[in-house]
Amino acid sequence: MENNTIFVGSKPVMNYVLAVVTQFNEGSNSVLLRARGKAISRAVDAAEIVRNRFVPDSDVTDIQISTEEIENYNHEKTNVSIIEILIEKSE
Amino acid sequence: MENNTIFVGSKPVMNYVLAVVTQFNEGSNSVLLRARGKAISRAVDAAEIVRNRFVPDSDVTDIQISTEEIENYNHEKTNVSIIEILIEKSE
Question: What is this structure's pTM?
Fold first, then answer.
């Protein structure tokens, strides 16, 4: 499962869409999109674009949210939200 | 159910946290957070803050994502992602 995780960051959304499509084309049946903070909305966009436009036989089968404590450059601790979106291909 | 929907926009996250807490204090057993576009990450933050800090006997029980077509100020159609996060209080 870990191998199929794509970390969504600040690049254009189509980069992540392409990464998901590539995983499916290489034979994966599931891909996990993981994002934190402001990138969360980009992960949702990527999942929706994959499902609606590029891999019609795929669907979002699970979405989890959670919180992680991170340390900023001042060594202060701050909380950041995480989203994990599981996209699976129906056989 | 519709009455318990809170639309998350561009205000500070604590405004939405307070709105959820108020709903629960007024006797609701469930609150739906709904956001689109860039506000999606703020809705996730609000849900996490409610669950972890303010209403410990609540939990996120369902998350749905979808796409809506909207018309911008130039009358051009564009797609926007939506998230709906259901927070429920255990009895």
Answer: 0.93
